[in-house]
Design goal:
- A hairpin with a 5-residue loop joins strand 11 and strand 12 (194-196).
- This protein has strands spanning 27-30, 46-49, 55-60, 81-87, 101-109, 114-123, 126-131, 144-146, 156-162, 167-175, 182-188, 194-196, 201-202.
- The strands form 3 sheets. Strands 3, 4, 5, 7, 8, 10 and 13 form a 7-stranded antiparallel beta sheet that branches.
- It is an all-beta fold.
- The protein contains no helices and 13 strands.
Length: 208
């Protein structure tokens, strides 16, 4: 999911001219064509979905080289902002054509009471993980759980104590790199089960 280009499906399942509908979350890999048969956006097979957005992303111009020490992206001036958008999950850049600063903001809705382990993984870049443990809508110095993660996808872990159904703000500052700006976040609950965190995320509530 980190590239805008996908090889074609050898034998497409179906051709649709009418709206495609389905019950619940739906994801398809499809080629969107104009009436003359040319692909929309100039490239072919892509993923389309109706998944709910769970994170807000702001991309920044941070220069042409990947920075080993991740800058505080929230402190950069407005002039450095390239774009803002929402996504249904925590991921690195979808179109990895240049080095970028990628700030991801989201709220974790705690799935259970007790100690949880967060695990951050990056590749071809570095990231800093902030977690609002005291729920004061800011990030204290001791709420920086991971700083300048390595670019080898080794899991960087930190423990947090949660109260079920409470919201906790998460921010990830990601200094991306080429060719694979991987950014993944996992959570392990008191039951010992590890899973990718996105199912427990909601768009940040900035007016609590």
């Amino acid at each position: 999911l980190n590239s805008p280009n996908f090889p074609p499906v050898p034998q497409p399942d179906k051709h649709y001219r009418d709206p495609l509908t389905g019950r619940g979350p739906l994801s398809v890999r499809a080629e969107l064509l104009r009436s003359d048969g040319t692909p929309v956006d100039g490239h072919t097979w892509k993923f389309y979905n109706n998944w709910p957005n769970r994170v807000e992303v702001t991309e920044y111009n941070i220069g042409r080289r990947t920075l080993r020490a991740v800058p505080d992206l929230a402190a950069l001036p407005e002039s450095k902002i390239l774009r803002r958008y929402q996504m249904p999950y925590v991921r690195g850049l979808m179109q990895n054509v240049a080095v970028r600063g990628q700030m991801t903001e989201t709220d974790l809705v705690a799935p259970a009471d007790g100690k949880h382990t967060l695990e951050l993984r990056t590749q071809s870049g570095h990231a800093t993980l902030f977690f609002d443990q005291n729920q004061n809508n800011g990030f204290d110095e001791d709420e920086v759980l991971v700083r300048d993660s390595p670019n080898d996808e080794s899991g960087q872990k930190a423990d947090v104590t949660l109260r079920q159904d409470e919201r906790y703000r998460i921010r990830i500052d990601h200094s991306t790199g080429l060719p694979r700006p991987v950014l993944l976040l996992f959570i392990t609950g008191p039951d010992g089960k590890r899973t990718e965190i996105s199912q427990y995320l909601q768009l940040p509530n900035k007016n609590p």
